[in-house]
Amino acid sequence: MTIPVSLALSLREAGLRWTPRLGDRFVLPYRDMDGDVFVLSDMTVDVHDFPTGRVIGFNGVTEWALDSVQAEEALWLPAEDQLRDLLGGLFVRLGASPSDGEARRFTVTLLRDGAEVDVSGDSAAEAYGTALLQVLRDLQDADA
Protein backbone atom coordinates (compact mmCIF):
# COMPACT_ATOMS: atom_id res chain seq x y z
CA MET A 1 0.00 0.00 0.00
CA THR A 2 1.22 3.47 -0.81
CA ILE A 3 0.72 6.71 1.03
CA PRO A 4 -1.81 9.29 -0.19
CA VAL A 5 -0.58 11.79 -2.78
CA SER A 6 -1.36 14.63 -0.36
CA LEU A 7 0.99 13.14 2.25
CA ALA A 8 3.70 12.58 -0.37
CA LEU A 9 3.40 16.24 -1.41
CA SER A 10 3.68 17.35 2.22
CA LEU A 11 6.77 15.16 2.71
CA ARG A 12 8.43 16.67 -0.36
CA GLU A 13 7.56 20.20 0.81
CA ALA A 14 9.06 19.36 4.21
CA GLY A 15 12.37 18.42 2.59
CA LEU A 16 12.19 14.71 1.76
CA ARG A 17 14.42 14.07 -1.24
CA TRP A 18 14.18 11.15 -3.63
CA THR A 19 16.90 9.24 -5.42
CA PRO A 20 14.89 7.08 -7.84
CA ARG A 21 15.56 3.32 -7.61
CA LEU A 22 14.08 0.26 -9.26
CA GLY A 23 10.77 -0.66 -7.66
CA ASP A 24 9.97 2.88 -6.48
CA ARG A 25 6.41 4.05 -7.03
CA PHE A 26 5.54 7.57 -8.14
CA VAL A 27 2.82 9.73 -9.64
CA LEU A 28 2.88 12.75 -11.93
CA PRO A 29 0.92 15.39 -10.00
CA TYR A 30 -0.73 18.39 -11.61
CA ARG A 31 -1.35 16.50 -14.86
CA ASP A 32 -4.73 14.97 -13.97
CA MET A 33 -2.84 11.69 -13.50
CA ASP A 34 -2.70 11.47 -9.68
CA GLY A 35 -4.52 8.15 -9.83
CA ASP A 36 -1.93 6.61 -12.17
CA VAL A 37 0.85 5.09 -10.08
CA PHE A 38 4.01 4.30 -12.01
CA VAL A 39 6.77 1.89 -10.95
CA LEU A 40 10.42 2.26 -11.93
CA SER A 41 11.58 -0.89 -13.68
CA ASP A 42 14.02 -2.03 -16.31
CA MET A 43 11.13 -2.89 -18.60
CA THR A 44 8.98 0.21 -19.06
CA VAL A 45 9.91 3.09 -16.74
CA ASP A 46 13.50 3.73 -15.80
CA VAL A 47 15.90 6.51 -14.78
CA HIS A 48 18.42 8.06 -17.17
CA ASP A 49 21.21 10.39 -16.07
CA PHE A 50 22.08 13.01 -18.67
CA PRO A 51 24.39 16.04 -18.43
CA THR A 52 21.22 18.16 -18.32
CA GLY A 53 19.84 16.24 -15.34
CA ARG A 54 18.08 13.07 -14.30
CA VAL A 55 15.00 12.07 -16.29
CA ILE A 56 12.49 9.30 -15.93
CA GLY A 57 11.95 7.56 -19.27
CA PHE A 58 8.69 5.91 -20.30
CA ASN A 59 9.64 3.15 -22.72
CA GLY A 60 6.86 1.81 -24.92
CA VAL A 61 4.05 4.00 -23.61
CA THR A 62 3.55 6.20 -26.65
CA GLU A 63 -0.21 5.96 -26.26
CA TRP A 64 0.15 8.39 -23.36
CA ALA A 65 2.48 10.63 -25.33
CA LEU A 66 5.01 10.39 -22.51
CA ASP A 67 8.59 9.97 -23.49
CA SER A 68 10.30 11.26 -20.37
CA VAL A 69 9.81 13.73 -17.54
CA GLN A 70 12.27 15.52 -15.32
CA ALA A 71 12.71 13.57 -12.09
CA GLU A 72 11.64 16.67 -10.12
CA GLU A 73 8.22 16.50 -11.80
CA ALA A 74 7.58 13.04 -10.41
CA LEU A 75 6.26 12.62 -6.89
CA TRP A 76 7.69 9.68 -4.96
CA LEU A 77 5.25 7.48 -3.06
CA PRO A 78 7.64 5.84 -0.57
CA ALA A 79 6.79 2.31 0.52
CA GLU A 80 6.23 1.30 4.12
CA ASP A 81 9.74 -0.18 4.50
CA GLN A 82 11.37 2.91 2.97
CA LEU A 83 9.52 5.19 5.37
CA ARG A 84 10.48 3.01 8.34
CA ASP A 85 14.13 3.10 7.21
CA LEU A 86 14.00 6.90 6.93
CA LEU A 87 12.82 7.11 10.55
CA GLY A 88 15.98 5.24 11.55
CA GLY A 89 16.72 5.04 15.26
CA LEU A 90 13.68 7.17 16.14
CA PHE A 91 11.39 4.24 15.30
CA VAL A 92 10.32 2.14 18.30
CA ARG A 93 7.37 0.04 17.09
CA LEU A 94 4.31 -0.26 14.91
CA GLY A 95 0.97 -1.21 16.44
CA ALA A 96 -2.56 -1.69 15.18
CA SER A 97 -5.86 -1.10 16.90
CA PRO A 98 -8.07 -4.14 17.33
CA SER A 99 -10.55 -4.67 14.54
CA ASP A 100 -13.89 -4.57 16.37
CA GLY A 101 -16.09 -3.59 13.46
CA GLU A 102 -14.42 -0.21 13.06
CA ALA A 103 -11.68 0.58 10.59
CA ARG A 104 -8.32 -0.55 11.90
CA ARG A 105 -5.87 2.25 12.76
CA PHE A 106 -2.10 1.91 12.82
CA THR A 107 0.21 3.66 15.26
CA VAL A 108 3.93 4.31 14.91
CA THR A 109 5.78 4.98 18.13
CA LEU A 110 8.88 7.17 17.95
CA LEU A 111 11.44 8.02 20.62
CA ARG A 112 11.77 11.82 20.64
CA ASP A 113 13.75 13.68 23.28
CA GLY A 114 13.64 10.68 25.60
CA ALA A 115 9.86 10.26 25.39
CA GLU A 116 7.70 7.98 23.28
CA VAL A 117 5.43 9.76 20.80
CA ASP A 118 2.59 8.02 18.94
CA VAL A 119 1.51 8.95 15.42
CA SER A 120 -1.48 7.26 13.75
CA GLY A 121 -2.73 6.60 10.24
CA ASP A 122 -5.28 4.57 8.31
CA SER A 123 -2.53 2.25 7.06
CA ALA A 124 0.91 1.33 8.34
CA ALA A 125 2.47 3.28 5.44
CA GLU A 126 0.39 6.35 6.25
CA ALA A 127 1.36 6.17 9.94
CA TYR A 128 5.06 5.91 9.01
CA GLY A 129 4.69 8.79 6.53
CA THR A 130 2.88 11.01 9.01
CA ALA A 131 5.54 10.28 11.64
CA LEU A 132 8.31 11.15 9.17
CA LEU A 133 6.49 14.36 8.22
CA GLN A 134 6.37 15.35 11.88
CA VAL A 135 10.12 14.72 12.22
CA LEU A 136 10.95 16.70 9.06
CA ARG A 137 8.79 19.63 10.13
CA ASP A 138 10.43 19.65 13.57
CA LEU A 139 13.84 19.78 11.85
CA GLN A 140 12.67 22.69 9.69
CA ASP A 141 11.43 24.54 12.77
CA ALA A 142 14.75 23.95 14.54
CA ASP A 143 16.65 25.36 11.55
CA ALA A 144 14.43 28.46 11.34
How does this structure look, described?
This protein has 144 residues and is of the alpha+beta class. It folds into two domains: 17-76, no CATH class; 80-143, 2-Layer Sandwich (Double Stranded RNA Binding Domain), CATH 3.30.160. It has three helices and nine strands, in the order H-E-E-E-E-E-E-H-E-E-E-H. It has helices spanning 5-13, 80-87, 124-143, and strands at residues 25-27, 38-39, 45-50, 53-58, 68-70, 75-76, 91-96, 106-112, 115-121. It has a three-stranded antiparallel beta sheet, with helices on one face. The protein has a three-stranded antiparallel beta sheet with strand order 3-4-5, with no helix packed on it. The protein has a three-stranded antiparallel beta sheet with strand order 7-8-9. A hairpin with a 2-residue loop joins strand 8 (106-112) and strand 9 (115-121). The longest helix has 20 residues, at 124-143. The chain is globular. The two termini are 34 Å apart. 21% of the residues are buried. The model has no long low-confidence stretch (mean pLDDT 88).
Features:
single chain; 144 residues; alpha+beta; Double Stranded RNA Binding Domain; three-stranded antiparallel beta sheet; 3 helices; 29% strand
Per CATH, the class of the largest domain reads Alpha Beta
Structural class: alpha+beta
CATH third-tier fold name of the largest domain? Double Stranded RNA Binding Domain
From the alpha carbons, calculate the radius of gyration and give it in angstroms. Answer: 17 Å
Tally of discrete structural domains: 2
CATH architecture of the largest domain: 2-Layer Sandwich
Main sheet attributes: strand count, strand direction, barrel closure = 3 strands, antiparallel
N to C succession of SSEs: HEEEEEEHEEEH
Return the average pLDDT rounded to an integer.
88
